[in-house]
């Protein structure tokens, strides 16, 4: 089976392989996209292009995605915290220290291994054998709500909602420092850090538009408990944005610099709290809330005691 995706480029000046690999609604690796281009399965305005083609706003990109190869990832009997499930969707509360899909160094014990065991063959295959069912991702040490699609029709609808930023995504975080304003908006482009390709950064050349709204929930001695609402979903968006204004997420091993983590949090204190979208089949609005993990609740109580 062949799945056709038509995408209108919203950015100009970006290489096509970079632009497509950073689109959260596609969740395709850069190497996968380069192979699609090489094989003639990615065209612009009806013409074949090379991976270094520089996009112009309004370019029409056509992707021909072949039916997924048989999945070779082993199903594993790993307990899932299921927030919602029906014949089209599975929404789980991902724990800390769990990678979403297999990657070098993390070939098993991932969310995909667990989902394969739970769902069997009932998963979308649009993203190929390495990411069955996965529409969007959250970092290994970020906890919270994540949706998995059980068929290609649901996957396509949710991917479209991601592309137009209509999905509700609210995160809870504890950040270093005491924010003065009760609410705020961070509007800064995000792109790959030219000095460290493993990191993202604000204000870089060819960075993509990104907007984060935050509001203060509680203030402590030296820390603030906040809720962040995403308009866009760039890689590491909340972590990068909060660090850019001087309030990095507590425990962030990448963006918190030399700030001391006295709480042994095992990575950033960041939780995908609310996830809401139009159900791909019924069209009705569906919203789930992922309860804060125990470590997060315990940390809040510790900070409250210290602040009294």
Any overview of this molecule?
With 308 residues, the protein is of the alpha+beta class. The chain folds into three domains: 65 residues, RNA-binding S4 domain (Structural Genomics Hypothetical 15.5 Kd Protein In mrcA-pckA Intergenic Region, Chain A), CATH 3.10.290.10; 97 residues, 2-Layer Sandwich (Pseudouridine synthase), CATH 3.30.2350.10; 117 residues, Pseudouridine synthase (2-Layer Sandwich). The strands form three sheets. Strands 5, 6, 7, 8, 9, 12, 13, 14 and 15 form a nine-stranded mixed beta sheet that branches. Strands 1-4-2-3 form a four-stranded antiparallel beta sheet. The protein starts with a strand and ends with a helix.
The assigned structural class equals alpha+beta
Strand residue content: 25-35%
What is the CATH class designation of the largest domain? Answer: Alpha Beta
| Count of extended strands | 15
| CATH architectural designation of the largest domain | 2-Layer Sandwich
Estimated radius of gyration:
20 Å
Describe the secondary-structure layout.
Elements: E1 2-8, H1 16-21, H2 30-38, E2 42-44, E3 47-48, E4 60-66, E5 82-85, E6 89-94, H3 111-119, E7 143-149, H4 152-163, E8 168-176, E9 183-187, E10 190-192, E11 200-202, E12 211-219, E13 223-230, H5 237-244, E14 270-278, E15 285-289, H6 294-307
Task: List key phrases describing it.
about 300 residues; alpha+beta; Structural Genomics Hypothetical 15.5 Kd Protein In mrcA-pckA Intergenic Region, Chain A; Pseudouridine synthase; 3 domains; nine-stranded mixed beta sheet; four-stranded antiparallel beta sheet
